[in-house]
Amino acid sequence: MNQVSRRSFIKNAGGASVALWLGLSNKFFEDKAGDVLEANFTPYIIVESNGNITLFNTKPEMGQGTFQSIPALIAEEFEVSLEQVTIKLTNGQKEFGNSQSAGGSSSVRTSYTDLRKVGASAKEVFIQAAATRWKVDTKSCYAENGKVFHQPTKKYFSYSDLIEDAAKLELPKEPKLKDPKDFKILGKVAKRPDVPLKINGKAEFGIDVKVPGMLYATVERCPVIGGTVKSFDASEAMKIPGVEKIVEVERIYGRYHSVGVAVVGVS
């Protein structure tokens, strides 16, 4: 695999599409065919030459609205509407680390500034790319609805028109963030894009995932915190068709732990 810049654009095997990945670190890996195999940064944004824009959300959606609220932080500063983008949830890759956890009503407040900076940084490189093409000052340009406009002439480029030029630019570490009074998405009423999927049955939950050779487990624990298993006899249970294994398991949460017995088998 060849190491390339985080802003390097990616050509697919057929050469019909180009994509620019924008994140927080300085490199990712790409195979010879041009398909990204593994990223060692957080790739929050993909802009493709066909006009598609993808925003990645590291926070699990558990009914609290992070499917929309987390990408909204990026979209606000990147100057795209949620209707213009495809939102994808990450699925536990180690590169994303603890950012993929949720709890304590902390998802938005702990991501608020960092993810706004991701969007603002991406916007700035596209504005710079457009200004360079037009040979004008960046101050005369602005971004809106996935496009960069030149204020005096009303000319514009779509983000998708600029990805090769933007790929050559360094992402600013401290981009200018919008004044909250100028917000178009944050703090506004909006439809949640995950709701239709849940209504029509197309939403995929953890319980829906199946992999080859998948087993299931059910755990019986001591009902008292700190309780342990004195003993158990699995001989009769192992005779039941489908039961593969019966093991003692321990659950640790803070300074507490609970010991139980897990029965593992096919569905």
Structure, described:
The protein is of the alpha+beta class. It has 2 domains: 2-200, 2-Layer Sandwich (Aldehyde Oxidoreductase, domain 4); 210-265, no CATH class. It has helices at 66-78, 107-134, 163-166, 195-200; strands spanning 2-5, 9-11, 18-22, 27-30, 36-39, 45-48, 53-57, 86-89, 141-144, 147-150, 156-158, 216-221, 243-253, 256-265. The chain has a 5-stranded mixed sheet. Strands 1-4-5 form a 3-stranded antiparallel sheet, with no helix packed on it. α1 links the parallel β7 and β8. It is elongated and about 80 Å long. The two termini are 40 Å apart. Residues 1-17 and 24-42 have low confidence and may be disordered.
Name a few traits of the molecule.
4 helices; 267 residues; disordered N terminus; single chain; alpha+beta; three-stranded antiparallel sheet; five-stranded mixed sheet
Describe the structure concisely.
The protein has helices at 66-78, 107-134, 163-166, 195-200; strands spanning 2-5, 9-11, 18-22, 27-30, 36-39, 45-48, 53-57, 86-89, 141-144, 147-150, 156-158, 216-221, 243-253, 256-265. It is of the alpha+beta class and 267 residues long. The protein has two domains: 2-200, Aldehyde oxidase/xanthine dehydrogenase, molybdopterin binding domain (Aldehyde Oxidoreductase, domain 4); 210-265, no CATH class.
